[in-house]
Design a protein that fits this description.
alpha/beta; Methionyl-tRNA Fmet Formyltransferase, Chain A, domain 2; 14 strands; Met-tRNA-FMT_C; methionyl-tRNA formyltransferase
Amino acid sequence: MKKIRLVLAGTGNFSRKIFISLIKDSRFEVVAFISQPNKELDRNKNVILTPVASLANEFNIKLFQPNRTKEIYEQLAAMEFDFFITAAFGQLIPNSILKLPKILPLNVHGSILEKYRGAAPIQHALLNDDNKTGISLIEMIDKMDAGDILKEFQIEIKKDDSALEVFDKLANKTSELIGDWIVDIYNGNYIRRIQDENLVTFAPKIKNEDAQLFNQMTTNEALNKIRAFNDQPGAFIMHNNKRLKIYRATKNKIKSPLKIAFLDGFLYLIEYQFEGKKKILHEI
């Protein structure tokens, strides 16, 4: 069988993990990567490559980093590829580019659709204390996360899972499955599931202020925010007039140097950081 040609669009570590599995799979040829522009600087003010940009450099694969994907339409149109695949890319893909792949444009979406469409499905699953989530591989259309579902799986969310653990579980499982999924779709071995618009819920992009905790919350509400925003931006509370970021906490009474009172009890801090100070990890 001839190699299936892929253009892959993603930005962070979640994308990188999935894309590595496709690079190393002999059934595929990755002809180009697309990543968001590099925005972070290190202490010496040198540009830090996004994880996907770094991956492209590592394997010497063509890389685009447009401010808007439409800027590279002509370059992509000059290529021949079977699938255009996005995973946590962070930009809307114009319809003109969705029409370019010979087979399909696909999106690896981090939820069990029809719940949750949008930019932050994993965080909203944790905020809502869901006990499961998953991945939906969908056909991309010109409406956000509304395309037909072609493949999917589910995982359990454990009570001590934060966003970091859930992202890792989903990325690892997707890495195991996505190669076979793409081959199945290439060969027509799949069943479309049309989304029911009456069941749709949304997970909008997280704002920094969404991560603020208040003492008037219940311990459950606060703990769900801490779990959801563990990766970024980090849940925070004003404590003794200081901004305190909380990355991990527990309702179980432990010998922690710091505990915070909420409406129905205390949270004992495991990992936290005062503004301008080093992060503290308390061994339990």
